């Protein structure tokens, strides 16, 4: 509701009502700001940034708004505004502003956003555990924003991020499961793209630095490598969609082709241990194993004294062991490989990393990836197997509610609740409601 100047009360539209955002004028009162804050936080998550941008349109004129909310695993980076600058803004543009930001102290100046130096207002909030950043991209030559407008902008952003933190803290198990799945997928995609680009660029640098190629041959070879990398990048998605499983020897063959192209003009000698297994492995496991090996090889190549790299796969009934052995200084550690996100990739797959470094003799890095078996659980998170209604029932069951209470709260019959409880126990592989409640609390 909103207090009018006469003291009467006017109720604001309820959530879901289609109304235009009311921008805050430069002379807005505290009540106006409170009403605007209420209007913003009642929006669906995907509409909060556009509504905040619309509310601040007059107070801090801007062309685009972007946020980096580190609490959100599902979509931490969002953009709203004119298609011209907004379409080109990247999360990397916001990272320096996020690192330099001081909560409660809005900053205005110029920053490199969407490929150009642009005037911005950057507002940082510490209402979430890891902080959140709002960036308003302004018109060139825009007048500085006064302190009062910056204070209101800071207050609204702190309010919004407090709302975000509450939603994240009190998220339902279903939302948490979807968020974790999205985060896992994003981590894999970012890692794979980074490793693919790193491999292509390393190959190009090897060609350009080679003393055995003249200018004409170097240009032709570099062009061939670039074209091959583009073709491989574009074909990767279609290939992975089309193939559910790969034969182990064929999967290793694809890795071998990529490594040969990477080291074709390098002084480091590549040795490959052929895989003699024709067993089929899941496509995502094979793809992840290739990406991990590529990342390890790129790290190994950064050692100046390395002259030889040996790569091999061993396939057993339970696991795939990918080994990279070099003859370098024997100084690699988990920290060196951590920058390549190898450990993160293995954590997602339920695997592990083994590093055996012997000073003066080289390093052996082994990535162990478990292989799915017919009786293996579908996911490391048992809650992902449950449907939306089953998650609702389980959440109330974990609070100690009886079937009758659950039925009343969800507006279903007791027999339906009993049916859901039976399905929950079966899917979670437990024998009692207490065990199911314990699993729920462990996951949520």
Automatic annotation (TrEMBL):
Stated name of the protein: LuxR C-terminal-related transcriptional regulator
Cell wall biogenesis/degradation in keyword set: no
Domain HTH luxR-type: 379-444
Keywords: DNA-binding, Transcription, Transcription regulation
Annotated Gene3D superfamilies: Histidine kinase-like ATPase, C-terminal domain, Winged helix-like DNA-binding domain superfamily/Winged helix DNA-binding domain
InterPro entries, alphabetized: HATPase_C_sf (IPR036890), Sig_transdc_resp-reg_C-effctor (IPR016032), Tscrpt_reg_LuxR_C (IPR000792), WH-like_DNA-bd_sf (IPR036388)
């Amino acid at each position: 509701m909103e207090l009018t100047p006469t003291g009467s009360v006017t109720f604001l539209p309820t959530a879901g009502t289609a109304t235009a955002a009311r921008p805050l004028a430069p002379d807005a009162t505290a009540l106006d700001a409170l009403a605007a804050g209420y209007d913003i936080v009642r929006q669906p998550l995907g509409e909060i940034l556009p509504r905040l941008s619309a509310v601040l349109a007059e107070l801090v004129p801007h062309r685009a708004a972007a946020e980096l909310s580190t609490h959100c695993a599902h979509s931490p980076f969002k953009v709203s505004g004119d298609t011209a600058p907004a379409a080109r803004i990247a999360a990397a543009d916001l990272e320096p502003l996020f690192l330099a930001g001081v909560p409660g102290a809005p900053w205005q100046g110029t920053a490199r956003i969407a490929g150009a130096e642009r005037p911005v207002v950057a507002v940082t909030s510490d209402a979430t555990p890891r902080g959140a950043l709002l960036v308003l991209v302004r018109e060139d030559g825009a007048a500085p924003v006064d302190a009062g407008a910056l204070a209101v902008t800071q207050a609204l952003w702190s309010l919004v991020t407090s709302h975000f933190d509450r939603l994240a803290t009190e998220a339902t198990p279903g939302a948490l499961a979807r968020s974790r799945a999205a985060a896992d997928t994003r981590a894999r995609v970012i890692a794979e793209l980074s490793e693919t680009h790193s491999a292509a660029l390393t190959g190009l640098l090897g060609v350009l630095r080679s003393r055995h190629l003249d200018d004409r041959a170097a240009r032709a070879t570099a062009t061939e490598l670039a074209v091959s990398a583009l073709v491989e990048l574009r074909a990767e998605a279609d290939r992975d969609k089309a193939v559910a499983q790969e034969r182990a020897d064929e999967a290793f063959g694809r890795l071998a082709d990529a490594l040969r192209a990477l080291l074709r003009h390098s002084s480091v000698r590549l040795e490959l241990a052929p895989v003699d297994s024709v067993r089929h492995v899941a496509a995502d496991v094979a793809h992840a194993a290739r990406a991990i090996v590529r990342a390890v090889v790129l790290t190994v190549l950064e050692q100046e004294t390395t002259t030889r790299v040996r790569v091999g796969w061993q396939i057993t009934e339970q696991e795939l062991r990918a080994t990279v052995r070099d003859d370098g200084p024997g100084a690699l550690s988990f920290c060196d490989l951590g920058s390549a996100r190898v450990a993160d990739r293995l954590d997602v797959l339920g695997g592990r990393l083994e590093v055996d470094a012997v000073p003066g003799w080289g390093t052996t890095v082994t990535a162990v990836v478990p292989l799915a078996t017919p009786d293996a659980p579908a996911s490391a998170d048992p809650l992902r197997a449950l449907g939306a209604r089953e998650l609702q029932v389980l959440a109330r069951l974990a609070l100690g509610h009886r079937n009758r209470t659950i039925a009343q709260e969800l507006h279903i019959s007791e027999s339906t609740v009993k049916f859901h409880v039976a399905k929950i126990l079966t899917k979670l592989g437990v024998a009692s409601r207490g065990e199911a409640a314990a699993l729920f609390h462990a996951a949520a």
